[in-house]
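This protein record is not my work; I was only asked to verify it. Where you disagree with what is written, explain briefly why. This is what I was given:
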Amino acid sequence: MRAYTSRLLGQDPSLVLHGGGNTSVKGGLADVFGETRRVLFVKGSGWDLKSIGAAGFAPTDLNYLLRLAELEKLSDSEMMRQLRLATLDPAAPNPSVEAILHALIPHRYVDHTHADAVVTLSNSPGGEGILRELYGDEVLVLPYIMPGFILARQVAAATRGADWSALRGIVLLQHGIFSFHEDAEGSYEAMIELVSRAETELLRRARKHGTAKFQGTPTADSGTDHGTPTSLPLQLSRLRKAAGEIHGTPMLARLDASPEARAFAQLEDCGELIRRGPLTPDHSLHAKPFGAVFDEDPLPGLREFEQEYLRYFHDHADEHHRYLDAAPRYGIWRGNGMVYLALNCKRLEIVADISAHTIRAIRLAEAIGGWRALPREKLFEVEYWELEQAKLAKARSAPELQGRITLVTGAASGIGRATVEELRSRGASVIALDIREMEGLDSPEVLCLRCDVTDSDAVQSVLNEGVLHFGGLDILVSNAGNFPSSASLADMTDEAWEQSMQLNLGSHMKVLRACLPLLENGFDPAVVFVASKNVPAPGPGAAAYSAAKAGLTQLARVAALEAGPLGIRVNVVHPNAVYDTGIWTEEVLGERARRYDMDVEQYKTSNLLGLEVSSRDVAASIAVLAGAAFSRTTGAQIPVDGGNERVV
C-alpha cells in the first residue's frame, strides 16, 4: 500500500518531478533473534516515486533515527553515514536525506511532495500569509531551510508540544508540503485535498488579477520560421557546440517552440524573469540556479551566462567547494521559445520538464504580484551541497559517445538498424531515417523520422527536425541502399540502372551535402559511408550495384579531401556477405549462391575466416570508426567481410 500510494503521487508531475519528494511508513521487523524492532521504511535515495516498488524503501531503525534527532549538530555527510548505519538491510538503498524528519512525524504514513501550486504561492509576495490564511490551524507553515539534519531540527522545534491529531500537514516555504495519517489512503487524500486547495486559490487569484503573463499566447504570425534550414537549426548547432566547449564535453540541445514556451519568450521582461531562480531549490541540481537569455545570435547570451555564473560562484563559494561547469541548462531564446541543454537524453528530458513547470509557475506568480524565488545564496547552498559534491567524486565515467548526435540512414533494418542500436548502447543520440516504419526503435535516445533520402527537400526537412530535437550533428552514417536483382549488362534495363544510381549513390551525396554545415559545428565530426566488397571485387550480374557503390567510394574520397581541413573525418566500410539485411532475400541469396556453384550455407561462410558476418559486426566496426580510436584516420576503406581472397 505504501508503494502504491507513492506511485499515485509520483505519476502526477505537478506534485513530484524527476525524483523529487519522498514517502515513508512506520512498522516493525523481526530480527534473527525473534525480537521485533520499530522500523521506518523510507524512500531510498535515487528511487523515483513514479515507479517505486517495495525494494525502493530502505528499512531503518526508527529508535536510532529519533536519537539522531536529539543531537545538537550533525553534518550532512555524517548524517548520511549514520543513516546507512541505521539501515537494517545491507542490500537496501540509502535512506532519503529527510529520513530523520519522517521519523519525527508521529504518524504511520508520511507523504512529501514539491507541489507546484504550493511552491508557486510561496514564491509570490505575501505568499506565506496566503498559505496561512488558506490552511489555518490545519497546516504548520515554516520558513525555508536546507533539507537534511537542520530541517529536521527546525520541524522538531516548531512542533514541540504540538497537537499532532489536529494537524493535517506541514508546508515548507519554497520547498514543498507534507501530509500524514495513520493509513495510506488518509495521508494520500490529505495531500490531494491540501494541494487542490492551493491550486484553486492560485488560479482564482491569477484570473482575478490576471495579466498578459498569465493569459498571453503567441500570435499566429509571431516567432520565427522553424523550417528555415540555415537559420535556427544551424544557430542551435553553434550554440550547442559553444556550450559543450564551456562544459568540457559534448552536450545536447533542444529548442522548445511550443505555444507556452514561445508565449513566454515573447514577454518583454522574459530575460529578467528567467534569471530570478527556479521553482524549488532542488531544481538547481538539475538545471542550474538561473537561466540564460539568447537573442537573435545566441552566442553572446551564452558568454554572458558564463560570466554571470562565474560571479555567482565566487560570490558564495569557499575553499571547500569544487567548481562545477558554467554551461547553462536552460534559457530563453527571445521570440523563438525555450532552449534546453544537457549531457544526455535523460538529463535533457529532466531539464525540459523542470523548465516547463517553472515558466508556468512564473507566469502564475507574476499574475498575482510577482515571481520571488529564493536568493542566490540559498540556491548555492543546494547546488553546492556537500552531499552533491561528494557524488562528484564517485561519478562514473560516461559512455564513449555520450552527448554525441548521429544521423543514420536506412535505419529500419539490417546494418542501419544494428548501427542505431550500437550507437545508442555507446551513449549516442540518434536521428534514424528510413522510408519505412521503424518499429521498436523510437525512444528518448532515438528520433525516428520517415524520409525518402533521394528527395533533397525531404532530407533537409527531417534534418532540421532532428537538429532542433537534439541540437546538432556529430556523426553521419550514410547507409541507405538496396541490392537490385542480378542482371547481366546485356539484360540491364534503364530503370534498374537509374534506380540503383539514385539510391545507392545519389542519395548519399544529398544527405552529405545537407549535413556538412552542421558537421562543421560537431564534436570530432565523422562520416562513415557503407559501401560494399563489390567495390574492390565486383561480381558478374551486379553492375548497377557495383558501379553505384564504386561511385559512392569515390564520393567519400573526394569528401575526405574537402572535409579534412574542416576537421571532419570521412571513411568507408566495405561489408560483404551480411545475410541478416533486407537486401538478402532468400531468392537473392539462392541466386547468388548458384552463380558461384555453392549451396547457401557454403556461400554464407565463403570467407577466409569461415565465419558469417552479421549486421551487428558491421555496426560495431562503424561505431569504432566514428569514435575516438580512429580520430586520426580519414579517407580509409575498411573491409568487414571475414576476409575475401579476391580483395586480399
In short: The chain has a mean pLDDT of 92.
